[in-house]
């Protein structure tokens, strides 16, 4: 995959905002997010038809802005609504298994908290790795212990040319140091979904990312 797509990776479900989630997503798209993940889980999450309808509307919105639409965890939903990819973690359906029923041209993302998990994700054919949590986060109830910038750098060192995106507790002020440590981008929920002005915040995430060139295995 094009690693520049990971620069501003926005994730959201309806319970990550007190506003209309479609309005928040549209503002984030206007601000220049580069990829979006639909993650409808946790307290108050929608289920059944309501969830499907929101996912479909979000996909249409992303496509209007030419932004890839990824589904978290739920491969059947992703197939049904013709998403552009799927993101799975260590407790989800294994990548090797789910790849058998997904289109080849999808984007496949896998989470890793340590080098062992990252090595396995690469072996299984992940297109990118979500590395975290970097910092403490209140958004994910079952988040693991933060691995810090050092943990990210360790995974960068073994990931070779595979794109990686940092996640967990990330705010605007963290972007430069995470990119310098080897992340191809940052993935955020609350830093965009819970601010007053998602559009302006997304613009700043994009601007800060563009100070640092994309990772290259051939770089000095
Ligand atoms: C880009 C990205 N990275 C990591 C995760 C976390 O996935 P997972 O560990 O499966 O946890 P849940 O998000 O499913 O609670 C992610 N979603 N996206
Ligand atoms: C969904 C998710 N996954 C994580 C991981 O470590 O794998 S941390 C996390 C929550 C990210 O939300 P926020 O940007 O609000 O901290
Ligand atoms: Mg998951």
From TrEMBL:
Highest taxon listed in the record's lineage: Bacteria
Task: Name the cofactor(s).
Answer: Mg(2+)
What is any one of the record's Gene Ontology cellular component terms? cytoplasm
How many and how are cofactors bound here?
Answer: Binds 1 Mg(2+) ion per subunit.
User: What residues does 2-[(2R,5Z)-2-carboxy-4-methylthiazol-5(2H)-ylidene]ethyl phosphate bind to?
Assistant: 137-139, 169, 189-190
Keywords from the named record? Magnesium, Metal-binding, Thiamine biosynthesis, Transferase
One of its GO biological process terms is: thiamine diphosphate biosynthetic process
Pathway as given in its UniProt record: Cofactor biosynthesis; thiamine diphosphate biosynthesis; thiamine phosphate from 4-amino-2-methyl-5-diphosphomethylpyrimidine and 4-methyl-5-(2-phosphoethyl)-thiazole: step 1/1
Which amino acids does the record list as binding Mg(2+)? 73, 92
Q: Which residues form the Thiamine phosphate synthase/TenI domain?
A: 8-192
Q: What Pfam families has UniProt attached to this entry?
A: TMP-TENI
Enzymatic reactions:
4-methyl-5-(2-phosphooxyethyl)-thiazole + 4-amino-2-methyl-5-(diphosphooxymethyl)pyrimidine + H(+) = thiamine phosphate + diphosphate; 2-(2-carboxy-4-methylthiazol-5-yl)ethyl phosphate + 4-amino-2-methyl-5-(diphosphooxymethyl)pyrimidine + 2 H(+) = thiamine phosphate + CO2 + diphosphate; 2-[(2R,5Z)-2-carboxy-4-methylthiazol-5(2H)-ylidene]ethyl phosphate + 4-amino-2-methyl-5-(diphosphooxymethyl)pyrimidine + 2 H(+) = thiamine phosphate + CO2 + diphosphate
To which protein family does this belong? Belongs to the thiamine-phosphate synthase family.
Name this protein carries in UniProt? Thiamine-phosphate synthase
């Amino acid at each position: 995959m094009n690693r520049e797509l990971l620069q501003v990776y926005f994730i959201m479900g309806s319970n990550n905002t007190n506003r209309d989630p479609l309005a928040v997503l549209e503002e984030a798209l206007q601000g220049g997010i580069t990829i979006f993940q639909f993650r409808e889980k946790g307290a108050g999450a929608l289920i059944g038809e309501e969830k499907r309808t929101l996912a479909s509307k979000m996909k249409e919105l992303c496509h209007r802005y030419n932004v890839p639409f990824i589904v978290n965890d739920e491969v059947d939903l992703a197939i049904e609504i013709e998403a552009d990819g799927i993101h799975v973690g260590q407790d989800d359906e294994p990548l090797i298994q789910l790849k058998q029923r997904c289109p080849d041209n999808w984007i496949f993302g896998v989470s890793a908290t340590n080098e062992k998990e990252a090595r396995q994700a690469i072996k299984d054919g992940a297109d990118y790795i979500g590395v975290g949590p970097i910092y403490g986060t209140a958004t994910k109830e079952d988040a693991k212990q933060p691995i810090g910038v050092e943990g990210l750098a360790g995974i960068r060192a073994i990931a070779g040319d595979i794109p990686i995106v940092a996640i967990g507790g990330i705010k605007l002020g963290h972007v430069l140091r995470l990119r310098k440590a080897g992340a191809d981008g940052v993935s955020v929920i609350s830093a965009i979904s819970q601010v007053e002005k998602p559009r302006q915040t997304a613009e700043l995430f994009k601007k800060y990312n563009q100070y640092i060139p994309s990772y290259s295995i051939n770089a000095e």
